[in-house]
Design brief:
Glyco_trans_15, Nucleotide-diphossugar_trans, signal, single chain, alpha-1,2-mannosyltransferase activity, Spore Coat Polysaccharide Biosynthesis Protein SpsA, Chain A, transferase, 381 residues
């Protein structure tokens, strides 16, 4: 005969099981999974993205001891023209003042034409760190000969008519293709494992007294970002079909613990257009050089979408990171205040105070309607 206590336990077990089954079958986007929700009820803990744990104190160094501690095998990377000098100076000065005067990481500047003496002299006055200037091989920059120029030209005309930003620009397409599949192959970058991409005319708002490059190395991260948003669909009409074709042909290259939910709301059937804004990146060069991403880029390149459409390096990098890295290897640098016009990430609360940030905390893109950060957060819910 069942005792009253055993009866109560049995009823509770049935109720919990039914709640689990029903809630799992009716899960809404952005909420915790039923399993994690149940865990929260039982343990009192709530799942959250790793960045919310903050940076361990041991990563902070004394501002009076530049480059005294460990450093990652890393460099800053600028892709710039001679005409970008004023914007480069603005960005680089902030990088030095906010971070690099303490850590003294080197710089690599890349250009499709030789840098002028004026350019070299101006940037070298801004830092005590080593600077190398590299020329991009022509075959890695110009539109390939196998591209059907008549077809590409018609596509550009159509985009101009449709008022697509940079829709008529071949140099912009060259840049997107180079950043997608060639920058990490440049001879000057071969000795490095990590990079921090910086562009002209950007702002860094906060002091950074720890080394994010070392954090990437120690925690085995492969991709770091500050802003995420939706891509302009008119620039990538066939990109996702090409991605699905690659996945079908190479299922073994897809990481089982991937971040597909960041880029697709239906298990990969369609692309939700979310991407990490790649004008800021801190990343693992070996990840791009690896088998999975190398095959992925070569496959996309042969489709010609960089020229027949206007595929950007941001969605290409983001899709690659989401498919071929573990989700917890993608990191949101919540404490790096950053602006690339017209969007900015401004750290909030204690992070704003700790970094002595000079951005307006009310001007923060993180959870605006066009931001994808909520989808990144949902990866860990």
């Amino acid at each position: 005969m069942m005792t009253p206590m055993r009866y109560v336990v049995l009823v509770l077990a049935i109720i919990i099981s039914l709640h689990f089954i029903l809630s799992f079958s009716h899960e809404e986007y952005g909420r915790a999974t039923s399993l994690s929700h149940l865990s929260e009820q039982l343990t009192g803990s709530k799942p959250h993205p790793p960045y919310q744990d903050g940076v361990p104190e041991e990563y902070y160094t004394s501002p009076t001891a530049p480059a005294q501690g460990r450093r990652a095998n890393a460099t800053f990377v600028f892709l710039a023209r001679n005409g970008d000098l004023s914007g480069v100076v603005m960005s680089m000065k902030q990088v030095e003042d906010r971070f690099n005067k303490e850590f003294q990481y080197p710089y690599v500047f890349l250009n499709e034409e030789p840098f002028s003496d004026e350019f070299k002299e101006r940037v070298q006055t801004l830092t005590d760190s080593k600077i190398e200037f590299g020329l991009i091989p022509r075959e890695n920059w110009v539109q390939p000969e196998w591209i059907d120029e008549d077809r590409a030209s018609e596509a550009r005309k159509k985009m101009i008519q449709d008022k697509v930003i940079y829709g008529g620009s071949v140099p912009y397409r060259n840049m997107c293709r180079f950043n997608s599949g060639f920058f990490y192959r440049h001879e000057l970058l071969q000795k490095y494992k990590y990079y921090w991409r910086v562009e002209p005319d950007v702002n860094f708002f906060c002091d950074l007294h720890y080394d994010p490059l070392l954090l990437m190395q120690d925690q085995k991260k492969v991709y770091g970002f500050t802003i995420s948003l939706y891509e302009y669909p008119a620039t990538i009409p066939t990109l996702w079909e090409s991605v699905k074709e690659f996945i079908d042909e190479n299922p073994d290259l897809v990481e089982p613990e991937n971040a597909m939910r960041f880029i697709s709301d239906d298990g990969g059937e369609s692309y939700n257009n979310c991407h990490f804004w790649s004008n800021f990146e801190i990343g693992d060069l070996d990840f791009w050089r690896g088998e999975a991403y190398s095959k992925f880029f070569d496959f996309l390149d042969k489709k010609g979408g960089f020229y027949y459409e206007r595929w950007g390096d941001a969605p290409v990098h983001s899709i690659g990171a989401a498919l071929f890295a573990k989700k917890d290897q993608i990191h949101f640098f919540n404490d790096i205040g950053y602006r690339h016009n017209p969007f900015q990430h401004c750290p909030q609360g204690e992070l704003h105070k700790k970094g002595k940030c000079w951005c307006d905390p009310k001007d923060n893109f993180d959870y605006e309607w066009y931001s994808c950060l909520k989808r990144y957060d949902a990866l860990f819910a």
